[in-house]
């Protein structure tokens, strides 16, 4: 009889774990949080990275940002992040890097503490291009990314970045 109680308890734990997991799974693309993270992604990359409007992206970057990149290493502050953007992304007027989110690749997972939403994980694939004067934009690479956003005083801030599996494209 003791084994039956053990298996019932184990089954109950597994069942509740599965219900919790499915209750906090990837969000539908029509959800408010998904759309919010997509909008912040656009501010960071379409305006900030692609158009070098760094002031627009500044409120969305956490002071203690950690950026892990499989090719260029680790950056551990907002200041270092912006310095790298200025030098490597916005500093070359001849060959301007452009980032594009691969359609359909973005996933968003909510993060809760005591049933209160405090963050989100964004995962996806992005492609990188070069824009030169008098030339068509051309692809140079593709990579995967995972971002951790936290909600700070009503603003979603990028806190942790994993940028990995960079592959050259021609």
UniProtKB/TrEMBL annotation:
InterPro entries to which the protein is assigned, alphabetical: NTF2-like_dom_sf
Protein name stated in the entry: Nuclear transport factor 2 family protein
SUPFAM superfamilies found in the cross-reference section: NTF2-like
């Amino acid at each position: 009889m003791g084994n039956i109680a053990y298996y019932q308890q184990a089954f109950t734990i597994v069942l509740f774990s599965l219900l919790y997991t499915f209750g906090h799974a990837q969000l539908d693309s029509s959800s408010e949080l998904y759309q919010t993270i997509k909008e912040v992604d656009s501010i960071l990359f379409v305006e900030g990275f692609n158009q070098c409007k760094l002031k627009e992206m500044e409120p969305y970057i956490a002071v203690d940002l950690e950026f892990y990149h499989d090719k260029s290493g680790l950056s551990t502050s907002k200041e270092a992040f912006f310095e790298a953007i200025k030098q490597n992304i916005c500093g070359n007027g001849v060959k301007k890097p452009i980032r594009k989110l691969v359609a359909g690749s973005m996933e968003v997972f909510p993060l809760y503490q005591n049933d209160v939403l405090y963050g989100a994980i964004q995962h996806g694939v992005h492609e990188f291009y070069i824009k030169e004067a008098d030339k068509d934009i051309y692809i140079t690479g593709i990579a995967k990314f995972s971002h951790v956003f936290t909600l700070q005083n009503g603003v979603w801030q990028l806190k942790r970045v994993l940028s990995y599996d960079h592959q050259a494209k021609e």
